[in-house]
Amino acid sequence: MTLEPGTSVQYVKGIGPRLAEILASKGIHTVEDLLYYLPFRYEDRINPRSIAELKPGEMATLLAEVRGSGLFRTRRQGVQIFQMTAGQGTSAINCLWFNGAYLKDKFKPGQTVALYGRVEEPKYGRRLQLMQPQFEIVYDPDEPGSSEQHGRPGGNGIPESLEMGRIVPVYESAGQGKLTSRWFRRIMHATLRDLTPNLPDGIPPAIVRRLELVPRREAFVQAHFPDESVPLEDLDRARTPAHRRLIFEELFFLEIGLELKRRALRAQPGLSFEINDGVRQAVKRILPFHPTAAQKRVLKEIADDMQRPFPMRRLLQGDVGSGKTIVALQGAIIAIENGYQAALMAPTEILAAQHYLSARRILEPAGYRVLLLTGSLDDDHKREIRRHIAQGNAQLVIGTHALIEEKVEFAKPGLIIVDEQHRFGVLQRFRLMKKAAQAEPDVLVMTATPIPRTLALTLYGDLDISVLDELPPGRTPMVTRRISEDRANEVWDFLKKQVAKGNQAFVVYPVIEEQEEPETKKTLEQPNLLAETRTGLKAATKMYDELRKKILPGLRVGLLHGRLRPDEKEEVMRRFQAGEIDVLVSTTVIEVGVDVPNANLMIIEHAERFGLAQLHQLRGRIGRGAAKSFCVLMTGGKVSPEAERRLDAMVRTTDGFEIAELDLELRGPGEFFGTKQSGLPSFRVANLLRDRELLETAKREAAALVDGSAKDISKEDVTRVMAHLRSHWQRRYGLVEVG
Ligand code: ADP
Ligand code: MG
């Protein structure tokens, strides 16, 4: 039968209902889903290597014949090792698998095996070894037909099959190894053979021509069974014309979806704030300092949006300390002066409290009414605040999640400011907006995570982006040093000197108590951290005691960590802010947004344990005042090569974007954004890091198509794009709703 893209996989020859179920668990339901299950690696079995020419250290693909195998135990450690000897003519190689008892009955002499693994020098003897190679039995003389003949007629005496004499695709197995790479190869081959010749293609012909995209069907064929002329490197880097086409397509439809969403939003009725001289005066009046050029520019972008009659959805990106808060407050004044209310939502109680304090300091002298609503307030108190909000007495409301969780009704919501958005997740952002019964309020999202531009375009494709790319004046450059733990005494002496000069300091630890996991596990790297913790990872509480009693007697030392009650945290922060505490010992709870300009020294112990973004965020807590500031990265114990790169980067630069790029490279986009929370779509073939350039192209083409500026794209093309989007991609991108 002819397979259509939408045909259920169980109609593919070789897949029944049972195997279809296993595929379903991998998200493969239709023939098209199956085709997108691309190989993760390719093997060159056209010119398999000869054993005689192998060099230790290289990765090699071999075809060889099984000569014999057996299980044995190492004398010293008693580890079971399975050894299989494979040969070509007079040469042979030993393949070893640790704990390989499960392979006992796998191999029989006379079989042909494909092997892929690292070549190593043997401990004894002269025969080279392959350690834990991946393998496939590609021919078994006892099983006729085990090597099915497929594809082109043979040449060169090499049997033409799916397994040999070609570039062979390697797939991730499924169903606990039940569906092997070989199985996928056969199934893909059958699928492509029976696939309809007219595979629908949603990309307009003009774009196909402009970007020289190969036809869709050919792209699938070539991605699964590449011609032998295709360089293996291009395949492994997903840089063949076939890969380019499939990746572009995926990104193009994502960007179309985002563009549509953005337009749908623009079409909704929003508030149109008036900005007259009076409002302008009010906005200027609250400024405690001269704004930077970047702050002025961004305020203008925000003000322009607020004037327009459609809802603002703007992302304000700015490195730590770039002065986002004051700009956001100026936006709030525009709303308030127009008779509306503003809300500012922070990710933690500490931050909410801090915003509250600084907002009051700035706004109350000008006569504005600011209130704080957090989860830890007692019920009576909350009720009263909710009443003030509902009656419109509160002009600016600052809060945490409580703002969306409690039954808060704003009398006249005008502007919603969300701080550190990436911690909230995308969905919650929308829940907050929906609270408003009237016209859609404007939304300003602030983030200190410097997101590389291309990624921001995707992740926040439906938002407009403003960037604060200039630090306020008067900041002396920060000095970052890396020092080993055994020189801790020098560091403490330095701290004492700083405090004697009237400055304050942070001392940061990865854990609260010994024998526990770090507070933010996700960003710390070592999987065996628990075991190591028991053997001396310094903990905040213990060090707090030691610093207070032994190391820094006479100094006022405070302790802050995530397990304190909210009011306790608030009290500690207040005292630190007021200068009643000299040294604040803390965990990463201070990571985001804490603002104490008088603190000019941060000592981070076990700095090798922290993620790069986290170190940068932490360091951003200092260097906010006029005094020269210092960040000391103390390391104790072994530092992995990756940790070395993180620490190097920290010492080398304070540029948030540079650090973000490296962080992204080290961790990959999923981790970078905190996986699930991020709202990142899960891609089939695209990889945001690898495919940034294609993403830019896709974005440009999608925007031109949606706004009608692409002259070579017809109405029919657009209709087809929309239909294709709806039928093929909407399910994929849960967030992209196509109207
Ligand atoms: P962030 O962007 O990290 O939220 P903040 O808004 O907390 O940064 O500002 C960091 C510090 O810089 C604050 O102490 C703030 O008062 C100060 N600041 C912001 N803008 C200016 C400016 N234009 N001139 C001087 N100080 C400023
Ligand atoms: Mg901030």
List keywords for this structure.
binds magnesium ion, 6-stranded parallel β-sheet, binds adenosine-5'-diphosphate, 7-stranded parallel β-sheet, single chain, disordered C terminus, alpha/beta, 739 residues
- The percent range for helix content is 25-40%
Strand content of the residues, in percent? 15-25%
The helix tally amounts to: 24
For the largest beta sheet, what order do the strands appear in spatially?
A: 10-11-9-12-13-8-14
For the terminal residues, how far apart are their CA atoms? Answer: 35 Å
| Bound small molecules, deduplicated | adenosine-5'-diphosphate, magnesium ion
Low-confidence stretches: 146-160, 426-430, 519-536, 674-679, 735-739
Biggest sheet: strands, sense, closure?
7 strands, parallel
Shape: globular
Rg, Cα atoms, Å: 31 Å
Secondary structure tally: strands: 20
The secondary structure category is alpha/beta
Look at the structure and give the mean pLDDT.
84
